[in-house]
Amino acid sequence: MSAIALVFGTLFGALIDLNKPGNYIHWGFIQMSYGNLIVIILMVIVFFAAILIPFKTHKDKGGDR
Amino acid sequence: MSADTHKKPKKFVQDRDALAWKGRYEPYDLAKEFLIALIVVIILVAGLAVLFGSPDDKPVTVQSWSTANPVDFAQTAITELDGTSATATYGPPYNLNGDAQSIGPIAPAKWLGVHHPIDTANDYVLGPLGTLPESPEVQAAVAEYKSASASQQAAWTAAYEKGVANATFTNGTLVVPAGDYGPVGTIVPALTDMARSGALDGALLSSRQFYGTDYTKPLLFIADGQYLSNLAANDHLSGDQWGMMNETGQWPGQAWLWLYTLWYQVPPANTSDNGDILVFAFMIGLTILLALVPFIPGLRSIPRWTRIYRLIWRNHYREVEGGSTGGGTSGSPPQVEATSPEPEPVPV
Amino acid sequence: MTIADPKAPRPDQADLDKAADRPEDADQWTAKIRTAAVEALPPQRMLPDRQPAYVASWIYVFGVTTIAALCMVIATGFVLAIFGPNWWHVSSTGLFVNSLHLWSVEIFMFAMVIHLWGKFFMAAWRGKRKATWISGVVVFLVSVGAAFTGYLSQQNFDSQWISTQAKDGINSTGAGAIFNVTNFGQMIMWHIVLLPLVVVALVGLHVLMVRLRGVVTPFAAKNETPGVQPGSDTAGAEVQA
Known about the structure:
The complex is a heterotrimer.
Chain A (H helix, E strand, L loop, with lengths): L1 H11 L11 E4 L2 E4 H19 L13
Antiparallel strand pairs in A: 1-2
Chain B lengths: L24 E3 L2 H23 L9 H7 L1 H13 L25 H5 L7 H11 L5 H12 L2 H15 L3 E3 L2 E3 L8 H14 L1 H7 L10 H9 L2 H8 L23 H5 L12 H17 L10 H5 L1 H5 L1 H8 L27
Antiparallel strand pairs in B: 2-3
Helix pairs in contact in B: 2-3, 2-8, 3-5, 3-7, 3-8, 5-8, 6-8
Chain C lengths: L12 H6 L10 H12 L2 H4 L3 E3 L9 H22 L3 H4 L1 H30 L8 H23 L4 H16 L11 H30 L28
Helix pairs in contact in C: 4-6, 6-7, 7-9
């Protein structure tokens, strides 16, 4: 019972503790947290990846209906 | 398709109009696509939740504030009593002791008036003290203060505000340099004690009703002090730290507020008394622009000028431009849109 | 309208379904609404099993991903509502469900913004799709508002700070007279009742409009004349009706 509680407690309690003072980049008048910066960079990467990665259609799969 | 001979044919504007598709269709299973998207999202979200969890910093209470920093509490309390605190001088919608923000003649908060009345002296200081049981000394001080003239009250509070700037807290007592404070010298320390005991939190919330869900009064009181804003500044949540975008700890925050908070970092909003209404008006304008892009020449041409669409639809353009006989699509018969055609023979 | 003969055999559901629009009932509001709806969005258009050949890019999945994330936001919000606003502060399961709720919102916003970028660079408002674009911008705004009221409903330090700061911006517009961000009860009702209903209604409208008009066609190719249907003999523009 306690082993299960331990597992779920760990899982539900988050494996990586983000409850620490954040790190920020300072660029001119721009200040941004690493968390937000990563999210924004990821969005740009995913946007271009979505456009550039080929999207397989039925046609490309050899024409089966 | 019937011809409307009495109407002039509409001129085709590339950035506004589009032709109906007469080309090839491919099978596309929307239901399956949705299910796959749902599964991917569930896995992603569950993974992120297991990895990173979510923040939950305990709230500040009047008790925790006055216990951690009783001098800051006392310094705030005197400004609530003498009506010089941020809340006391806010203006609408809390009171009429300050000017609402405006752009020229436009002052919406002023027009709408007071809707959440707060009288800081009575609501935050004298009223709560009046609920203290068995404290004749405090009740006498409150009565003396209330019955004094406005100028006498002002003299006491001004003197106390000066004195409490150099206050300390020793052995559980507020120590303020000697001065002619009258009953205020009893009132503020009594309120500090009441706050530290936890009784003030309850008094502020239940002053009107038992089942309170409106925390306006205690929140504004707490926000008038330095304690809350110091905590926030430590977490980079202050307005001048792009705080609107940020979250406590290292969690990502609200990245979508980037443009909104940007204007608070630069003139004129970062120094103006009307900074908020300026930013809001500007952002409302930009949002309307975004909604109306389809109508705005130039703005609506940006997609065509930047040519990212050539990447998105590169297969289509390769088919149409590269090597096929004549113009147009794959030579298949025209299809009327929105019916389910037979699968087209695929050009090789 | 004739009164049915009580001795006559009753029509069964199959008969009712098969009965085409009866001319004598054509003035009935229900019949009129049904006819207009079915004309505008017949089943094959509501749930098409085909898309134009140019709909073949990963950028096209971000609309449905946004909707999937919204489903997750609502589902996790539903669980949080079952146990009440205090649950996630006192229970580790509650905290986990709160984390699911937070990260599904992050994914929702992430996908929505990429969907917005994609639609912008496709100029997806073309061909009588302006209302689709506008409804998208509006639902984006309302979603930001819904997230905002969520942050205000946390009942922790974060919501204390956000409410006492945001009040200044909102008060400056006069909206603070009604929309009181420091009023937890009001904010949580906007968050779990009013705004989700508006978001879902707008998303529904948005998707219906996409079904109505179809996915926007590409800009004219280099060897095509804009406004001239490829392969057509006429020089006139056949603008999308």
